[in-house]
Amino acid sequence: MSVLKDFEHRLEALFEGFFAKQFKSGIQPVEIAKKLVREMDAHRTISVSKLYVPNRYSILISEADAERIKPFETTLVSEFQSFLIAHAKKEGYELLGRPQIAIKAVPRLSLGEVLIESTLESREPGVEKEGAGDAYLVRSGAGGETKFLLADTTIKIGRAADNHIIISDPNVSRYHARIESVGAQHLIKDLESTNGTFVNGAKVDERRLKNGDTIAIGTTKLYFRREAGV
């Protein structure tokens, strides 16, 4: 049985068709579940060895829908959490703790309209961040954004299959560039590539990366981001 089908059966057992009968023009939990997994899939963060996904989700619905589901909100949130955990396990994703889900009423939304927002919290609330914060590369594509977490290691970029970030582009060398972690800083180094490595439009052999820098490798652009420290 698929994760979604199992979720549907659990809801049916819990609510005995309540939503189908009473919420014909409003929200449906199964549709919210589908939106949650799409949000999870679209915002993956890749590290050297793991594939992280958001662990905090906000479900934005109309005020009328929020009032209707209020008696069942705690149960629904618990079911959504279990559903996301099962989906993450099935796909091989890494979740940093049990996903936190909040249902919020938004006046501008119409009956039945649902929006999902998500974030990846890398540390528990209340724990002070160290250094300059997490650094990562963002790569945009047809399937959404992919984030590559830059840990305290060297990240290789190129066309060859054993790179950490693989770019299938004939303009990219097999081993094109690498990003090194030096203390709290990250350096990008060109590996004598054929067509060069560019940062903010300038060709570089080596450059310290700053928040907001754009890296061009072949026809691919990667965006360097760093979370602000506390």
UniProtKB/TrEMBL annotation:
SMART domains: FHA (SM00240). Keywords: Phosphoprotein. InterPro entries: Cell_Proc_Reg/RNA_Proc, FHA_dom, FhaA_N, FhaA_N_sf, SMAD_FHA_dom_sf. It holds the Pfam family FHA. Residues 155-204 form the FHA domain. It comes from the Bacteria. PANTHER family: NUCLEAR INHIBITOR OF PROTEIN PHOSPHATASE-1 (PTHR23308). This is FHA domain-containing protein. It comes from Candidatus Aquicultor secundus. The lineage of its organism: Bacteria, Bacillati, Actinomycetota, Candidatus Aquicultoria, Candidatus Aquicultorales.
